[in-house]
Write a structure and sequence with these properties.
23% strand, 4-stranded antiparallel sheet, 256 residues, 8-stranded antiparallel sheet, Jelly Rolls
């Protein structure tokens, strides 16, 4: 696993809002990630609900809460340290983890940004997207809008069939995208404000990926009831401004 970034990579991430890393996992690590993620998804698939989304991907959230081996992958402090390096943070907590499987002939994933959906506000949220299969232009690799994180948009767009719905609300954000094809074992990191999407899977094979989203260690609840992530019981204990620091759900994965 990559254990550091060059200064040029850090600067590129901060300028563009994303970073493509083709050599993230070695071959042994890749096989381990594939095994753990695939077994957990197969045991209890949780298709994404929503208009037309059943044709886009199969989603399984919170693998680490259900499987000890998955917990070891997600809670890896080396990944937390890489996030801290990119975002300039002293402390990093897990927000959520989820497997995303683009099914054969699966529909595209609409352009969106992450932070409007989440229960904290920060300019330094970060997600790693790890390719468990080759992610190509043919099977639905990610696409990013470089520099879009600087706009700090706040629209939570439903992941429906209109791939450009975000730009109906924010036409000023439309810009040429950059594709991020990856070999299996490669990854991308992207900021929570970066506009991104994924293409259609034109192939008969699945495109598997594992994603982990992180927040600053001092992130506080903003009042958004993200029940899927925080859980109803934990939400009932929070008032706006309280730290999101439940160690069982949101462990600290890096402290400098």
């Amino acid at each position: 696993m990559r254990n550091t970034f060059t200064q040029a990579e850090v600067e590129s991430y901060r300028q563009n809002g994303f970073l493509i890393v083709e050599d993230f996992l070695d071959s042994g690590e890749l096989e381990r990630w594939r095994q753990v993620v695939t077994e957990t998804v197969t045991a209890s698939p949780q298709p994404m609900t929503g208009k037309n989304s059943e044709k886009a991907f199969t989603q399984r959230m919170h693998l680490r809460r259900r499987d000890e081996a998955a917990r070891d992958l997600v809670d890896d402090q080396q990944i937390g340290r890489l996030v801290a390096e990119l975002e300039g943070l002293d402390s990093v907590r897990l927000y959520l983890d989820q497997a995303l499987v683009k099914e054969p002939y699966g529909a595209p994933t609409q352009y969106h940004l992450d932070i409007p959906w989440w229960s904290f506000d920060s300019d330094h949220a970060c997600t790693i997207w790890v390719a468990l299969d080759d992610a190509t232009l043919a099977n639905g690799c990610l696409w990013f809008l470089p520099g879009s994180h600087h706009r700090r948009l706040s629209s939570a767009v439903d992941l429906g069939p209109d791939h450009g719905a975000l730009f109906a609300t924010h036409p000023e954000a439309a810009a040429p995208p950059v594709a991020a094809p990856l070999p299996a074992g490669g990854c991308t990191f992207h900021n929570g404000h970066t506009i991104h999407g994924a293409g259609v899977n034109m192939t008969p094979g699945r495109r598997r990926a594992m994603t982990i989203a992180f927040m600053p260690g001092d992130a506080t609840w903003n009042g958004t009831h993200d029940i899927q992530v925080l859980g109803e019981e934990y939400l009932q204990t929070l008032t706006v401004g309280d730290p999101i620091d439940h160690e069982g759900r949101h462990p600290r994965v890096y402290a400098g």
